[in-house]
Amino acid sequence: MFSLPRTATAPFCPSEVKGTVGDATGLPLHKKLLRYAGPGLLVSVGYMDPGNWATDIEAGSRFGYGLLFVVLLASLAAMLLQTLCVRLGLVAQKDLARLCREQYSPGVNRFLWLGAELAIVACDLAEVLGSALALHLLFGVSVSVGIAITALDTLLVLGLQGAGFRRVEAIVLALVLTIAGCFAVELALSQPVWADVAIGFVPSLQRLQQPGALYLAIGIVGATVMPHNLYLHSSIVQTRRVAPTEAGRREAVRFATGDALVSLSLALLVNAAIMVLAASAFNSSGHREVNDIADAYHLIEPLVGSALAASLFAIALLASGQSSTFTGTIAGQIVMEGFLDLKIPCWQRRLLTRVLALVPAFIGVWWLGEDAIGKMLVLSQVVLSFQLPFAIWPLTRFTSSRTLMGSYANGPLLKAVAWTLFGVISAANVWLVAEVIF
Predict the structure, then answer these.
(1) Is residue 23 packed enough to be buried (19+ CB in 10 Å), middle (13-18) or exposed (0-12)?
(2) Are 239 and 39 in contact (CB under 8 A)?
(3) pLDDT tens sequence across 319-350
(4) Are 168 and 326 in contact (CB under 8 A)?
């Protein structure tokens, strides 16, 4: 008789998959690269989820190519933070959440745990709304029915109970390639002005002074640099078995850092492609108030002149929403096990996160209507931005500690950049609160 699992199992439980991917010692270079490839890819899916779509589409339609530099700077910040996570996990051999529990008081620990859980739920809310909208666009079901259908992704978690971690990585790779392939075709069809694209990547404070630009920029940062990804990455890099020598550790850090940089570069290209598509299809044709993914879907076909463009847009959206199902479950287990020293069955963890996302999704659609999905997605990303400083602080502090990191501790320049990033994001959030209140 079928029975539901009663314990946390691989591949979603961090302690169950630690050191399960074989040692790369003695392998040729290309096989070493393949052995270490994967954790960065799982992290990168959080950087191209439906929340990113909402902020990038609205930014592209309103400001054309003007905010591309925000995507670039946010992606560079993400690369810095994720590489710090790589070093923390491989050198200290502990994830960020567990170190917080060991280093901070119980009150601070509970506060950080609640913030991490809020970030996971906010991200899952974006995935629910994005997947539901994709189902609506592809199959004609109502958005409310689409939201209900997303609850069934718990079955995906059940189906993978006991599987190896590499299988999750392979599934995510297929979904990421689907998203990237769809947008490569979209860009070819939309024919953007590449000279203007290049200018958009040049930083400009003047562009941020336009009405609504800074709010969107903060949303882009929240959508790009996700706080729970810092907990996730510091744990899943430990799935690789590392030779217990200084040379083995140094090699692991080098290859895992390369994996993170390549994966996040792919995420940068996808996010930039979404904004470029919105700028070339909507802004250039005078449609400068497109802040909803459904509106973007319906406008792409007549503006680009191809029904294929709209179909690929919806397929990529569905792949985007589903790709984060796995990483959200793993991140949830990591923060529970790290902060609370608690394990629950993976399907329960997935169901709990999804229910907490379904409730505001249903309420938002019922109260504001289906046309407000874009605004809800942008708001979810702003929430993520507010949580980000509370993950950056301990990450920077721990990776700067000689006691924990030894010779791998952050140098003066790296510390200065990390703390500056913390200050800039915190100041932007304070400004946003002041704008809303006053």
Answers:
(1) middle
(2) yes
(3) 888 877 778 888 989 999 999 998 888 888 88
(4) yes
pTM, two decimals, is: 0.90
Q: How confident is the model at residue 186 (pLDDT cuts 50, 70, 90)?
A: confident
Cα 145 to Cα 112, 125, 245, distances in angstroms: 34, 15, 54
**Residue 1: predicted pLDDT:** 45
Measured torsion, CA atoms of residues 353, 354, 355, 356, in degrees rounded to the nearest 10: 50
User: What percentage of the chain exceeds 90 in pLDDT?
Assistant: 33
- Token digits of residue 377: 């997605």
Please enumerate in sequence order all residues whose Cβ is within 8 A of that of 161, keeping only pairs 6 or more positions apart, or say none: 5, 9, 10, 12, 346, 347
Q: Are 95 and 234 in contact (CB under 8 A)?
A: yes
How many residues belong to the chain? 438
What digits encode the pLDDT tens for the residues 273-289?
989 999 998 888 888 88
**Based on C-alpha coordinates, what's the Rg of the chain?**
21
CB-based contacts of 324, cutoff 8 Å, min separation 6: 45, 46, 49, 123, 124, 127
